[in-house]
Structures are given as C-alpha cells and as structure tokens.
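Here's what a typical entry looks like (Catechol 2,3-dioxygenase):
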Amino acid sequence: MSNPNSKYELRGINHLALVCSDMQRTIDFYSGVLGMPLIKTIELPGDLGQHFFFDCGNGNTIAFFWLADSPEAAPGLAAPKGLPDEGELASAVGSMNHVAFAVPPEQFDEYYTRMQAEGIKVSRVLNHDDSSAGVSRHVHPGTFVRSFYFQDPDGVLLEFACWTRTFTEADVAHKPKTAADRRVPTAS
C-alpha cells in the first residue's frame, strides 16, 4: 500500500477534528464502545468549549470539539443522513462524509458481530469491487476492501474497513470529474 510522497514526508493523519454535542456521550462511545483511549483534554480559552483527543491506533488520533455556540447538526449537509447501504451517501461540498478506521482483515467478521452485539446499528458488509454495482455479496479476486458502516451518537458516519489486495497502476484508471460535471440541486 506504500505510495511515497516525493514532496513531503507525511506520516498519516495526526488528527481529524469533529464537533460533538455532548462530550461525555462522545467519551462513552469512542472509549467505551470502540475502546479508544482518551489521551488529551483541553479547555478552550474564553469559555469557548473543549477539545478532546482519542487514540485510534498507529499514532493517529480522532479529536472532538465541544463548542458552546455550535449550530445544530445538519444531516444531509454536513454528513450523510444515514448508512450507505440505505442509499444515504450525500453530504455537502467541503463536508466530512465519513471516517474509516483500518481493522485487521482476519478480525473483520468478528468485529462486525461484536458491533451488533453492542447494540450498534451497522450496515450490511460491503465487499467493494470494480463491478458496475461497486459491491458484491462475496469476496472475490476483484474485491479491494471490505467494510461496514455505523454512526456515532451525533450521527457522524464511521466505517470499519480492511484492504484485501495490493493496488497496482491499473487501479488508477478514471478521468477526474470537474465542477462542471456536478448535478447541483435547484431550489424549489
């Protein structure tokens, strides 16, 4: 999976910062349900709020702001309204669509079962491939990643994913779309 950057020595994601409505509930989910240790807490100056960091493995962190003046959630704009296998994938330009956590392929099926046992609503398992549907029922040589999706208490779309094969030059084969290709919804 190595694709060395010739310009900068990037070492992965230091942190991804999201916004929550209830920091205690966020701790309960990310540390309690997902097992991520809470490693740093910050009180923001001027009573603005808090910024907490969770270890999500390999030196990477996911962070949350609790901001006293945050607007309400905007499902369908800031993040998808639901799970991708329910047809919910859209979010606005500049939004964060979802966070995918890398999990070991040999433990993928066990993690799926464990999440269900925790009472977490999960999508069906998606075996992503290059078919016209983009997914298949079964893993086959064309499957490149297996995943399932779920949401945190604030509706942030999360994914457990595992790569199933090594990419080659043939995997970069599509012409990029531009702003002119967008179907922008019109106001009614």
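The radius of gyration is 18 Å.

More examples are in the samples folder.
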